[in-house]
Amino acid sequence: MTLYIYLYFYCNFLIISVNSVKLTMKQGLLMNQVLATYALDNAQNSLCKNHSNLYRNGLRSFESWALNMFDSSSKIQPGILLGNLVEFGSYKQCIQIRFDEIKGKHCLIKITPNLNLIKKILSFRNVTEKRFPKIKLIVEKSAFFWSVCVPDSCPTNDILRHFKKIISEMTEGLNLNASLDEHHCLSEEDSLTMGLAQYVSLAILLIFIGVSLISTILDAVMSKNSLISAFSITSNYQKIVSRRRPNDLDCIHGLRFLSTCYVIIGHRYLMAMFSPVINGLEILDWILNYSSTIIIGGTICVDTFFMISGLLVSISFFEHVTKNGTFNVLTFYLYRYFRITPPLAIVVLIYATLIQFLGSGPLWYDTCMAHLEPCKYYWWSTLLHIQSYTNPHALCILQTWSLTCDMIFFYFSPILLYPLWKNRIFGLIVCVSLYILSVAISFYFAWINEYEGGMPITNQLFETKYFQQHYITPHTRAPPYILGVLYGFYLFTLKEKKIKMNFFTILSGWLVAATLMTVSVVGNYSFQMENHDFNRLEASLFLSCSRSAWTFGVIWIIWSCVNGYGGIINDFLSAFAFRVLGRISYGCFLLHLILQLFKNGANKMPIYFSNFSTIYDSCADLLLVVLVSFFFTMFYELPLLNIASLFFKIPKKVQSNN
């Protein structure tokens, strides 16, 4: 019926425009139904009431502006039972409407079903009562969104009153609840304006670029000056693309960048799964495929960063104390802080002041509020690297929870490193004890909270107790870092000696490593299965031990490469391209979610979820992120690192390791 009315309007618009015929009785009845639905009735605001009457008369007369207003409002979309729950209408078309004093305003009405209706719809997809608890977090806050275009003089309460009445009449017996947030009503006049904070932020970013350009010119015409070279584009470009002498740990470049790619692809899947999609319920089937486990279980790749970080800190520490015989804890902390934090501060500044200008759309306000507000209010905890404890519910730059963990590990690393330096046996006892303690803490919290075992799949992930109190907390994520410290100490004691291994040992090591890493990822699959009953011990053991299993696999890869048994894997991971990409990986880490989140937030229509389309988008993400990160590294990260190195007089070898 709705499609018939929709087509009827266009056909009759052309007929009336050409022939000026009058409506028939049947056409008039249909017109009355449309007007009763889309034109506000009994508005309390006098201006809104007047404009609504003009809209009603304009639509009856098929005036172009009124037809555009109707055209840009939602009609019942197909595929609701497949999960097509969000209908954006035509956002741009609506807000561009102008007729005398009337301007278009786009409103997104939220229609929330009760749990019984959700279960009924899921039964059409063969989701049984037994499986429902496993997917409850995905669907329990599902809502239908419907867009309407109305005169911008109409206040939110008048709009909601009218459409709440219409929806109630049309869906009697379904117990649907309609709501409308005033921030989901947007007109062209709602466009943002730059303020003092925005101008200051933009000035800071441009000053860095300006200083770099001037320094490049001076570097070319003057004798070498360390301060000028610190900002010189030519000098920093050479640092990014330089071919330094190969060493045994070059495979780390490949591991680090590939892990960054894994994170970016995983986040793109997360964006795709929990953005408005036209086939939302097919995601429930996708979860049951083994291929999905590569993404769902892929969160474990973050532990690669923790292990590598512990490894490099350990090697750098022992090289330093062996050479100098002393350990300056103040320099140890300050250099690391000023190496990591200033580039982070630049990105926090962008989030807090500028990201709201990167797009627009029906969901743009929600996107900005979710990611701008935490940086406005919790920038300090981000720059102090304590946000996993102070504000886990509102992370500034979501992915930096791992940076917080890494910095806290670094703060406490002397507790591991100093005993190993002074007394090897005592140091090993301390490290092993802290490792066991962290695993035990992880097991304890998983046990008492009865976590399911795998990562919860829900668009409310960041609000879950598991995410805030287990997934991002340093005390539960420490084991890979401790293993990295121990492994770094072991490699240092070998002093570049190669360990001889026979073919059987090498083959067994690769098989064990591959098994451990595969089980760590694919192990998530069983927790999603309908016929898999919750087992408290199994889930707790998996959550507390799987990350260590993955780390042992990564350690074997590095071990094989260091000792000359990596073969083609070592050649691949140590490739020059990965050395270059590894040098910009920090920028990739900091910036990639800006592109992903705000591309999604600016969507004007739902997307179709599939592996192909998501991988396709991921490739675009990677290309753009590498390009943006290259310039970020050259204009911001490297100049700040160079200044920190000059101030603390850090050797180049230590710089490269950290």
Tally of helical segments? 31
Distance between the termini: 65 Å
Measured on Cα atoms, how large is the radius of gyration? 29 Å
Strand content: under 5%
Low-confidence stretches are 17-21, 651-658
Number of strands: 6
Structural class: mainly alpha
Shape: globular
Largest sheet: 6 strands, mixed
Number of domains: 2
What is the helix content? 55-70%
Q: Give average pLDDT, whole number.
A: 88
What is the element layout, followed by pairings?
Layout: H1 2-19, H2 25-38, H3 46-60, H4 64-71, E1 86-87, H5 91-95, E2 98-99, E3 102-112, H6 115-123, H7 132-139, E4 144-151, H8 156-170, E5 177-179, E6 185-186, H9 196-221, H10 226-231, H11 233-241, H12 251-273, H13 282-287, H14 290-296, H15 302-324, H16 329-353, H17 364-383, H18 387-390, H19 401-412, H20 414-422, H21 424-449, H22 465-471, H23 474-477, H24 479-494, H25 503-522, H26 536-562, H27 567-573, H28 576-583, H29 585-601, H30 611-648, H31 652-657
Parallel strand pairs: 1-4
Antiparallel strand pairs: 2-3, 3-4, 3-5, 3-6
Describe the structure.
This protein folds into 2 domains: 2-190, no CATH class; 251-630, no CATH class. The protein has 31 helices and 6 strands. It has helices spanning 2-19, 25-38, 46-60, 64-71, 91-95, 115-123, 132-139, 156-170, 196-221, 226-231, 233-241, 251-273, 282-287, 290-296, 302-324, 329-353, 364-383, 387-390, 401-412, 414-422, 424-449, 465-471, 474-477, 479-494, 503-522, 536-562, 567-573, 576-583, 585-601, 611-648, 652-657, and strands spanning 86-87, 98-99, 102-112, 144-151, 177-179, 185-186. Strands 1, 2, 3, 4, 5 and 6 form a 6-stranded mixed sheet that branches. Helix 12 (251-273) packs antiparallel against helix 15. The chain starts with a helix and ends with a helix.
